[in-house]
Amino acid sequence: MVTITSSASPPISTRQREELRDRDRRRGAIAGVIAAIAMLAVIVIFRQVTGVTSLLDALADAVLLTLPMQAFSFMLDMFGPQAKTLLLVGLIGGILLAGLLLGRLFAKQTAGSRRLQGPRALTYAGGVFLVTALFILVFLQNRLPTELAGSRFVQVFIPLGVASMVFGLVLAGVLLVLRTFDPPAGAIPERVAVTRRHALAVGGIAVASLAGLAVLGREVGRVATRKALSTGPKGELPSVITANDDFYTVSKNFVDPSPNRGENWSIEIDGVVNQPITVTRQQLEAMAAPEFVSTLTCISNPIGGPLIGTARWTGAPLAKVLALAGVGPGATDLVMEGEDGYTDSIPIERAMSPEPMVVWLMNGEPLPRIHGEPVRVIVPGVYGIKNVKWLTRLTVSNSDYQGYWQDRGWTDEGIVKTESRIDEPGDHAILNVGPANIRGMAFAGDRGIQKVEVSVDDGKTWREATIFENPSPDGFSWVFWTLPWVFAQGTYKIVVRATDGTGEVQTSKGADTLPDGASGWHKITVGVA
User: Fold this and answer.
1) Torsion sign over Cα 234, 235, 238, 243
2) Residue 299 and residue 248: Cα distance in Å, rounded?
3) 244-408 belongs to which homologous superfamily?
């Protein structure tokens, strides 16, 4: 047994007293951080075990709501898909810092105590619960009808209550263990033993803390490594039909839903309708239209970016689905809601046109989970934000509806801008002197592509390329183009522009992705030796 000897000493000085207070605050800070780790680990494990809405998701939503559009755009431009990872890391860091501060305060208020401060610990737990709950409610108040209504409200606040109690009890318990190393106040000279019980307690705290950090690290790693985008390798033209595994995916969620709706899933239709109804899978399949090809692109896709893909979809016309309930007079918007609480809308006129579809097959297979299992909406001509995944409800509204991303400053129209991209050769490639093909894609939503032009002298002169792949006769997809060129030695600045089916030429004016999608010409530089 290891012993520490404390010798007799006169009454402690003011300086010594302050040093003891500082030591106790440091111990409180350690206890607070460990308690915050435990609280976060409980939240993550609770979501993993039960599948209910994650408190971290709700807090992330609140943070997103407070971010100015310019700050969000900066994060998106700088970090791309990893912006979400950084947001999660920042959120976890902020909670750990809050735990540290609460731990110091708790240590100050319980100075000298050698017993578990149960009532005070529960008071701290209640404070954590109330402050966090108010934070969520204040910053998510506009989302309550969808994201925190009914059972979702309970799903968020039950784990918050459990995690808050864990925080308070762990805070008090860890601080108590650390204080058992001190002699009792006013003790006479004695030998204070560091017993096996002390060593086991500290070791247990350390192991539990590392386990909690491992849980949080796994959560961050899952967000960081989740599939976010995919196309062909750099410098290579992608497949004309994008495989399901290669299709880009962008989601507001840190954890996408895993709907367990069985084989007999359905969707609800309500609002300004003649009769609110539930539409079953069998009813939808009975109305199935022929397979169609349509391209999806993300509104946050930069010029020449990879957030675009094309698939063969199978579904039922949205207009026929709505006709089952009967659209009532005064209808303005169709609000679409997903399993994850995400909502967006399209004008009712657009919803009743022939093109939008409620789909359940992607490239002949049931929708993958990350692409909206078991059913989603495909609206040709608009950005991905309007193509709601994990569809659960269609609500006909008699007023303009602002969805999840509209609340954050994105456009409500979402009409795809004409875009074109050079895939071959890759930017800064070194080519051999002689003939080579310049190839790429062009897309203009549901307007189709009429013409593609390429310049090898930075836009001074143009040559029309040949469109050799057009997988959608309806004009809903990208097209692939090629231009043969004989390269001499030197440096070339290659530019591409497209003309849509209405005859409008793609603008050269550059614009950021926020608020209504990027615009401008894609340019690359190649060397020829």
Assistant:
1) negative
2) 12
3) Oxidoreductase, molybdopterin-binding domain (3.90.420.10)
Domain 419-528: assigned CATH number? 2.60.40.650
b/e sequence 450-488, b meaning 16+ C-beta within 10 Å: bbbbbbbeebeeeeebebebbbbeebbbbbbbbbebebe
What span, in angstroms and rounded, lies between the C-alpha atoms of 5 and 19? 19
Q: What string of DSSP letters covers 61-91?
A: HHHHHHS-HHHHHHHHHHHGGGHHHHHHHHH
Predicted TM-score of the model (pTM) = 0.78
Secondary structure element (H or E) that encloses residue 268, with its range: strand 266-271
Over residues 399-417, the pLDDT tens digits come to 999 998 898 789 999 999 9
CA pair distance 248, 80, nearest whole angstrom: 13
For 185, other C-beta atoms within 10 Å of its C-beta total 9
CB 338 within 8 A of CB 390: yes
CB 258 within 8 A of CB 271: no
Query: Of the candidates 222, 224, 210, which has an alpha carbon nearest to the alpha carbon of residue 37?
Result: 210
Q: Is the pLDDT of residue 106 over 80?
A: yes
Using one digit for the tens of pLDDT, what is the confidence trace for 253-302? 766 777 788 889 999 999 999 999 999 999 999 999 999 999 999 998 99
* Strand spans (E) along 290-349: 292-297, 308-317, 333-338, 343-347
For the chain, domain boundaries: 12-225, 244-408, 419-528
Q: What is the DSSP string of 183-248?
A: PPTTPPSEEEEE-HHHHHHHHHHHHHHHHHHHHHHHHHHHHHHS-----SPTTSPPPSS--GGGS-
In angstroms, the Cα distances linking 295 to 123, 335, 424, 448 are 55, 22, 20, 11
Q: Which residues contact 260 (CB under 8 A, 6 or more apart)?
A: none
3-state DSSP percent of the chain in helix, strand and coil, to 5: 40, 25, 35
DSSP state for residue 419 in the 8-state scheme = E
3-state secondary structure of 360: strand
Longest dimension (CA), the chain: 96
